[in-house]
Amino acid sequence: MQQRGLTLVELMMASILLAIMTVAIGAGSHLLGGASIQLRDRAHSAAQLRLAVEHLCEDLGAADKLKVNSRKKLTITLEDDAADLAGYDRVVYKLDGNRLVRTVKPKGDPVTVSRDLLAFEIDSPFGEEVYVRLATGRLEENHSVRLTWTPREEYDDEDEDDDD
Length: 164
Fold this sequence. Notes:
alpha+beta; five-stranded antiparallel beta sheet; 2 helices; 37% helix
């Protein structure tokens, strides 16, 4: 006698195998999705840090002097030529929660330069040089940058050596 179709045991085994394969595929896609989200977060953190560094470097490059108001607030006074060109003479940076806020003085509104910062620390241990540390990321993996600003040395044109 020939059998037509599948027995109940064969159908149950096929269903169990199909369920196991579905769970395995779901777990694998969940792991891949988590890794994708983690990579996206790391790229976002790096981009936020890059934005903060670009703005600070631009303003520090035109700085005549810096005033450290606190470890969380920095006032940059621009050189006369840069101030004339920019239309403002001072820039204030401060950390507001996890946002780095840049305000130009005397006429500017606060603008968020970067979000998700863990740290914006300013230190001037030796008087002249100013160190600015920025950090972003998650607690298990963060990125940080330390900028150093040194005042330009004044020199007299008469003191230069002539090649004549």
